[in-house]
Design brief:
By secondary structure, the chain is α/β, with parallel strands linked by helices. Helices cover 41% and strands 15% of the residues.
Length: 436
């Protein structure tokens, strides 16, 4: 078996994202295939030769103890590597630093490395010279699998890149990416990567048609979701107490959306449709506010809606609560406790929340666009995400029909099996076996 390096670019974020979940699950499946897992982070940790301090600084989210002369030595060391290369240092994880706080966010790993600001350095190098930044590691991997489109590589080894979607090209008005830079980087990776991995047939078609990557250079491995049994099979009465205590709503007595609050998630139309439906079941929104979130959430304010009297609108708003973040164990309980999960996204490379809800036995309303029909199959009530009236009708239908909810909950369990970790592992193995 070999050594496989993945990046911690999204794993380093304080709050989880879909790509972070992808990277974390990937680390576990690499280990399950029998390979050594190496993870490269780009934390802005202070330079030091002391192993304990490196461990401390790595887990310190607010490192401010910069030792200037050590920083200068580190910069000199990196300068020796050359402007197009950067060296990574091992991070010892000895247990001396208590890390249980990070347990749900840490990947599976055999070795951790850190190269300060490596990912931003890679972007800077690419912008200046249109070249890829090389990373040097003390224990060179046999293969590098980058989980996000980044201009970075390990020299002399196969480099595989996961390109999840092409949202900046398909829905340019929903992202802040510099479109010219993004397009050129995607074209560069399409040419220079040893192989491209993506997560749906929909994304594969987009990579072929928009970026021009040959079909034979792309493998769709799909994704999987792995939820620990202690959360997935937690007693229902305990789950009920958790969600009722947190939200004030009954177990199986609320609609649920979770994800970042950004334009492609379509949260504005979801809220509009929910208010229009006039159902009594409350709505819980879990997600951090991102770009244009104020516009997406404007119907929760005192203006900007046309539904009924002001008193009625205020009453409807009282049935909507927004939580900026929920730790993973609590999020699992919120999903399990929901009456219906709602995911009317405009575009998704995969749509992990749909799979999470189906695995946990919660019926789903989702979009009929991009990759979501592949993931949901016939196990969700699908709607046109641009048609607010269609979303409204779906909300009313699912709210009123217990038999339909039971049908989709059962169908979701069966559909989720198609994306089991075992199936995902087999698809990964086919790709890795070409290079290991």
């Amino acid at each position: 078996m070999g050594r496989i390096l993945i990046d911690g670019y999204n794993l380093g974020l304080e709050k989880g994202t879909g790509v972070a979940t992808y990277a974390r699950n990937l680390s576990y499946e690499i280990a399950n295939l029998g390979h050594e897992v190496q993870v490269l982070y780009g934390n802005n940790a202070s330079a030091t030769r002391n192993d304990l301090l490196r461990e401390i600084y790595f887990f310190d989210s607010a490192v401010d103890e910069r030792i200037k002369w050590l920083e200068m030595l580190d910069r000199a060391y990196q300068a020796v590597q050359g402007p197009l290369a950067v060296g990574a240092r091992p991070i010892p994880v000895t247990g001396k630093v208590i890390t249980r706080t990070f347990q749900s966010r840490l990947p599976k790993f055999d070795r951790l490395y850190n190269a300060p600001d490596v990912f931003s350095r890679a972007q800077a190098v690419y912008r200046l010279w249109k070249l890829m930044l090389a990373v040097r590691l003390p224990h060179k991997p046999d293969l590098a699998h980058w989980t996000y489109p980044m201009p970075i590589k390990v020299r002399g080894r196969p480099n595989i890149y996961t390109l999840h979607d092409v949202v900046p090209l398909r829905l340019p008005y929903t992202t802040l990416d510099q479109k010219r830079h993004y397009f050129r980087l995607m074209k560069k990776l399409g040419r220079s990567a040893d192989h491209i991995v993506t997560v749906s047939e929909s994304s594969k078609r987009d990579l072929i048609n928009l970026v021009g990557i040959p079909a034979e250079r792309i493998t769709n491995t799909y994704q999987s979701v792995s939820i620990p049994d202690k959360y997935r099979f937690k007693p229902e009465d305990q789950v009920a107490r958790e969600v009722e205590g947190l939200t004030g709503f009954d177990y199986k007595g609320y609609f649920l959306f979770w994800g970042s609050l950004e334009p492609k998630k379509n949260i504005g139309r979801l809220i509009e449709a929910y208010l229009s439906s006039q159902v009594e079941t409350p709505l819980v929104i879990v997600g951090a506010q991102a770009w244009k979130s104020e516009q997406e959430l404007k119907l929760l304010g005192e203006t900007g809606t046309v539904y009924g009297s002001l008193e009625r609108r205020r009453g409807a708003r009282k049935r909507i609560i927004q939580m900026p973040y929920a730790p993973f164990p609590l999020l699992v309980s919120l999903i399990r406790g929901a009456k219906v999960a709602m995911f009317p996204s405009l575009y998704e490379g995969f749509g992990l929340p749909v799979l999470e809800a189906m695995l946990l036995g919660t019926p789903v309303i989702c979009s009929n666009t991009s990759s979501l029909p592949e993931v949901a199959g016939d196990a969700a009530l699908m709607v046109d995400p641009y048609d607010t009236q269609a979303i409204t009708q779906a909300i009313r239908t699912m709210d009123a029909d217990a038999g339909l909810r039971e049908h989709y909950a059962a169908a979701g369990h069966r559909q989720a099996e198609l994306f089991s970790p075992e199936s995902y592992r087999k698809r990964l193995k086919v790709v890795y076996d070409r290079y290991l």
